């Protein structure tokens, strides 16, 4: 077993992400109690975590995570094409790579947060946050809907619809399809789908339930789940890399 393969096989990425997410929620909960009353904790939570400020810690972490995920899936795609050619499994890696790259582009408003080029662009006039991305488009304005009408609350920022839809799509590919994969073996494209580990799927479901409870029953932590999704994408890629490395190690031992 090569050092690289050994390193991948021994990765504890899911445990690290779990510890990080739990720490964040604990910090957010503690901040709700007056007896804690820590100025530095309060400032960090509200200026670096639970905020839409693009220069905040969570926003930067998410952007970096999407870049890493894009690279990991590109690497998986490259190796798969080299090993078996451009087959169905390679298409899955290409899909995840493009999805990660698109999420990165949206996260940084396609470079506007870095280069500030959007001053004269038309898109910022129809964007709820005056940015050059698609997920914050003001559809209500485009469709000339009545302000403060029934649909205005949902369509004045496309992200109100796209963000939960994005989460559901990922849950479908990362949890639902892998869980029923054995019962729909007649579909070759599903059989070829690379799946994350059972541990990841369980963590994803538990965290989603915990997030919904905290977000609706206690306080808004939407930014936490948004950041988590970017880390989860890395975890999926690392899970697949780990499974491939373990399979290669077993194959070499048996040869």
TrEMBL record:
<protein>
    <submittedName>
        <fullName>Uncharacterized protein</fullName>
    </submittedName>
</protein>
<feature type="transmembrane region" description="Helical">
    <location>
        <begin position="224"/>
        <end position="241"/>
    </location>
</feature>
<feature type="transmembrane region" description="Helical">
    <location>
        <begin position="56"/>
        <end position="77"/>
    </location>
</feature>
<keyword id="KW-1133">Transmembrane helix</keyword>
<feature type="transmembrane region" description="Helical">
    <location>
        <begin position="12"/>
        <end position="36"/>
    </location>
</feature>
<feature type="transmembrane region" description="Helical">
    <location>
        <begin position="89"/>
        <end position="105"/>
    </location>
</feature>
<feature type="transmembrane region" description="Helical">
    <location>
        <begin position="161"/>
        <end position="180"/>
    </location>
</feature>
<keyword id="KW-0812">Transmembrane</keyword>
<keyword id="KW-0472">Membrane</keyword>
């Amino acid at each position: 077993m090569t050092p690289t393969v050994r390193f991948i096989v021994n990765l504890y990425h899911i445990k690290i992400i779990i510890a990080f997410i739990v720490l964040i929620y604990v910090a957010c909960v503690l901040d709700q109690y007056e007896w804690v009353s820590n100025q530095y904790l309060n400032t960090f939570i509200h200026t670096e975590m639970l905020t839409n400020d693009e220069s905040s810690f969570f926003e930067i972490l998410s952007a970096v995570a999407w870049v890493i995920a894009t690279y990991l899936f590109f690497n998986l795609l490259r190796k798969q094409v080299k090993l078996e050619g451009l087959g169905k499994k390679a298409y899955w890696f290409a899909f995840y790579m493009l999805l990660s790259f698109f999420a990165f582009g949206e996260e940084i408003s396609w470079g506007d947060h870095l280069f500030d080029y959007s001053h004269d662009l038309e898109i910022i006039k129809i964007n709820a946050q005056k940015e050059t991305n698609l997920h914050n488009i003001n559809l209500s304005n485009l469709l000339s809907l009545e302000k403060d009408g029934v649909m205005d609350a949902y369509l004045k920022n496309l992200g109100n619809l796209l963000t939960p839809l994005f989460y559901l799509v990922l849950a479908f590919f990362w949890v639902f399809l892998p869980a029923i994969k054995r019962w729909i073996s007649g579909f070759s494209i599903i059989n070829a789908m690379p799946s994350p580990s059972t541990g990841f799927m369980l963590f994803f479901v538990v965290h989603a339930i915990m997030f919904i409870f905290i977000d609706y029953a206690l306080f808004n932590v939407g930014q936490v789940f948004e950041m988590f999704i970017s880390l989860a994408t890395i975890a999926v890629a690392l899970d697949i890399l780990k499974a491939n490395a373990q399979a290669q190690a077993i194959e070499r031992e048996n040869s």
